[in-house]
Amino acid sequence: MATPIYAKKMTEQEHMTQWRLMNKDKIREINRRYRESHKEQERLTKAKWRKKNREKSNAYNRKFYAKLKTNPEKYKHYRNLNVKATKRRVRTLKETLIVLFGGCCQKCGYRRNLAALDFHHKNPLAKNGRTRLHIVQQRPQDYKLLCKNCHFEEHFPERNISPHPLVISHVEPEKREVVS
Questions:
Q1: Which end of the chain is more exposed for a tag (fewer CB within 10 A), N or C?
Q2: In 3D, which of 176, 108, 106, 179 has the Cα closest to residue 144?
Q3: Helix axes 72-100, 54-69, angle to 10 degrees
Q4: Is the pTM of this model over 0.70?
């Protein structure tokens, strides 16, 4: 007697494939929970893979963004996510570094507004792109925390007003008030 088609015995692989199809939501939830509890490990694994497979990663990104540009709404959404993440990362880094350097301008003592504080690289040739926390922590002597005014004075000493020939009469400005 011939066995009916529907009674055919499934292989382990076929059984798992069918189970996955029937339990997509359950698998998605399990994966989400795992990713939440292993965020740092996942970040490091991805970074390691990207470093090892730089060409594949760049090719994927080029293909992904080329595809996104065909859909302006989606492109705008992803672009906004990237901008927000970058701003958040930079703000967090800056706040951490400001605390590390004492929280005020090292020249005049200004401390009212975090946005008015900058980091001056004593050796501009060593700057090479982004400022990274671990580099600053290793070599804090290469950096100064300055307010915007002091930072510009540091970069453009030749533009100081006192010896400038165009200034007819110069009244010495009051010493800046240090706010505690």
A1: N
A2: 106
A3: 130
A4: no
